[in-house]
Amino acid sequence: MGKVFKGLKPWAWIVALAGLIVFAQALCELNLPALMSDIVNEGVMRQDTNEIWTAGLKMLAVTAGSVISAIVAAFLFSRVAAAYARRLRRDVFEKVMYYSNDQQSEIGTASLITRSTNDVTQIQNMLAMSRLIFFSPFMGIGGVIMAVRQAPGMAWIIAVVVAGALAIMGLVMKVAMPLFTSQQKKLDKLNLVLRESLTGVRIVRAFNRTAQESERFDRANRDLNDTMLKIVRIMSVVMPVMMLFMNATSLTIVWFGAIKIDAGTIQVGDLFAFIQYVMQILFSLMMFTMMTTFIPRASVSADRIYKILDSQNEILPPEQPQVPTENTGKIEFKNVTFRFKGAQDPVLKNISFTADPGKTTAIIGSTGSGKSTLIELISRNYDIESGELLVDGVDVRQYDIAQLRSRISLVPQTAVLFSGTVAENLRFGKREAEDEELQSAVKIAQAQSFVEKMPEGYESFVSQGGTNLSGGQKQRLSIARALVRRPEIYIFDDSFSALDFKTDAKLRAALKTEVSDATVLVVAQRVSTIMDADKILVLNDGELAGTGTHRELLETCEVYREIVFSQLSKEEIA
After folding, report:
1. Which of 17, 38, 447, 496 lies 20 to 30 Å from 117 when distance is taken between CA atoms?
2. Residue 323 falls in which region: left (phi positive, over 0), alpha (psi -120 to 50) or beta
3. What CA–CA distance (Å, rounded) separates 471 from 475?
4. Domains, the chain, ranges and CATH?
5. Are 408 and 378 within 8 A, CB to CB?
6. What percent of the chain has a predicted confidence (pLDDT) above 90?
7. Which residues, at least 6 apart from 524, have a Cβ–Cβ distance to it below 8 Å?
8. Whole-number Å distance between alpha carbons of 42 and 392
9. Is the overall model pTM greater than 0.70, yes or no?
10. DSSP-derived 3-state class of residue 334
11. Cα(61)–Cα(29) distance, integer angstroms
């Protein structure tokens, strides 16, 4: 937990100042019972009106100082808590953005969301309330000193009460800590179920699984609810028990105090002050008990966040990045082998080929043959196991990661759009793109027909995930977004699958003229999409089964022939 809070160093001086203000507040409140004792002993008992007014005005001044100190301290701690939470969320987000695909899958999207939101909020709440951590010791220790000064013969009562209160708090911490850990894990599970159900709502409805998904959500919800109820029940016992201690303590003090007053060993004012100091001691223990509801949860959350911040990225930047002498976009695979983390067999085995600039290199193969994995290696979402993967003669592992990815435009298999306008989505890879560049890219992607018909054209709103667009429209906007960037390398990962044959043909024809100098890689399932490619790679079970043009592969590659004959008629092949 302490390692997470190392990030508080920039605000250490504010925390120190707030601590001093809290100390001043504690001093003010510790002086109030003593002033009350003076009023009773000197003013009331001796009927001295001037003494009463003097002590009363002092009490008002001390009370005002206590109120002002409390307000300022609360403000400073809240500012520090909010600023630190903002920084912590940023650090977690930046760390996750550089995770490899394996690392993201290992933790899970639902858990990453929970850690970035709920867990950070738990730490923020604890920091905002941490002034009680400063205030409680000042009040507790100061109260003990002042109480012993007022009535030394009754100090044993303080020892008994403090020991009992500490025992209760220790028991609460011991029981509650595992429950807080369990609560955060069950919150992860609830987020996972909710995210899956909402993301896949169309599939749920299509398979008539609404009732089953509702039941699955209810199970996760009830599980979390049961754990939270256990925590609430435990915490709800603390306050009544502490109140019982306070009232029992007051009764005990009055009982033994009356005996001492009768014996003349203590004054009435001193007894009142002693009662107030003991109440302050118990109140400081109650405040510390309140913190026990924040500290365990914050500790669990801090551990979960620390696991992210302390983790080592599997995709590490080189110590001295290399810069290629030429920026043409040439890609070379030399005996590349790759396997997923924990997998027994490699996904890709001894892959060797060259994708030249100004040429279109297509990749085709059966489902699970490793096509998408192969192109993920180019942008270094995974690191290869053996062999060499070169871009312009430099190994991708020797590139600055940001520089490498800035040279690539990827159109993923599943079109992903972000909430915002059409123009904002198109400028995602190139913020400074002019309107003419957007229009040109949209025209090449065959998206002009529907974009210009939208109510506000390029300023029309696109909902999260592009849910207000059809699959083909999303796909074409994704292609246009890649074209706006104008990089050296274009990668189309089965991104023409949602287009009809006519639109597909028009788009590919437009691409040939517009990106003639770039290296183009096309992953496809449809033979018609890649028939005109300059080079076709045929993958089969992670191995390169054949390389060549469409005509060459028909004659030399049995795997390719099987794919072609399964999709095209003899007339189309001829």
Report:
1. 17
2. beta
3. 6
4. 4-309 (1.20.1560.10), 325-407+489-574 (3.40.50.300), 413-486 (3.40.50.300)
5. yes
6. 4
7. 362, 363, 364, 492, 494, 496, 497, 530
8. 93
9. no
10. strand
11. 11
